[in-house]
Amino acid sequence: MMLKYIPIAALLLLSGATQAQIEFQKSFGGAKKESFNHVIAAIDKGYIAVGTTESYGAGKKDIFIVKTDSIGTLQWAKSYGGKDIDLGMYIDKTTDGNYFVTGHSASYGNQYTDAVLMKINPSGNIIWAKNYTLNNSEFANHVTATPDGGCVLLGETMKYLGKGKDSDVLVLKIKNDGQLQWAKKYGGKDLDYGYSLEITKDSGYVIGGETKSFTAGDQDMYLIKLSHEGKLEWAKAYGGKGADYGKYAAQTSDGGFLMAGSTTNYNSRDVDLCVSKVAKNGILLWTKIYGGNNQDYISAIKVLKNDDFVACGYTNSFELTNENAFVEVFNSSGMPKWGKAYGSDSTDFGNSLSIINDKEIILCGTTKGFGVKSEDGLMVKTYTQRTLEDCNVTDITTLVTHSVKATETSGGEETEVNMRAIDIKMTTTNCTLEEKVLCVPEEQD
Asked: Which of 135-144, 156-165, 243-252, 409-418 is predicted least confidently?
């Protein structure tokens, strides 16, 4: 695939056009490796992404935040961390005009990894930072702001048992000042992971992840429904005899849910995308798998107002030489409408996406082919209605789609845990990045 770089000035010339119709593909990085794990619309209508950097900071890896304007032009970039490894996973806007940022850190506390949460202002300055520990290894994968000004943190707590390990889904309800309201874990006797959390219509929570504790085979997609107070209402696993990798859950307008991930089951050629629709009580309604002739992975999904949904991830099907990041839009019945893979001749991953006003799609991930010297953070803006781009894009609309019969298994236990919240002092570093405009598509009417 031909790589196409456009001078930044060329993109700026387009800013006089209707900005609402401008797409972009950008990369941001330094001398070593950078990645983005989540991106959202910023408070000022630009974009803000969180991930990890090896090029800047106080330790081996630092939490990495990049702020751009509405056409993807860099406004500021900062790293946050300590002397060891600090990874940035998710960001959300607070009710008071700031941001919650979460991840995990080996720089503070015990010899294991701790969940970490920062509150930062719109300029990226730290208001407070805390880690949360059980004296095991705790990981934070997702943060969702709550209407009371606090947030809910999702991750895992992992205990190492000789040559093996045991992991439970971990949920923390946190106040506006970072203090804990409650902490609970959910799972069974084996490995259980939580990757996504959304507030539901009844003010409870839905969690998407994967389980080895309750499974029809090797591991299954795992969907957990909690009340507002964190009480376990039900937990279900969906899958086949092989491995199913659950990643993301989202609620639909009928009160039910979509559970998305990837699968090696159902006569998949290799690894295929997998989406299940379940009722509001967790009863499985349908499962569909999608893919090409190689490996296809879902990283995240978002549901639109009409119950169409958008997925992102990465694929090396469709005659691609390496993994490309992708966006695929599906109708409410789970049939593909259109899809695009974005990438270079090297590896490019789509890690997360956000939908703005049911219209814009902002995708983030990692790019190696477009990196400055190694791997860079990737940011792509497109739209929920199909548009035409002229570079770095492969059409993947023709996903092979099959309806399959998955097995549904109930299982999960709720346990209160005695977490400790500890104030930490993170070092903040201003980052001087190189940004590349990878493509300037034609202006859309």
From this structure: 156-165
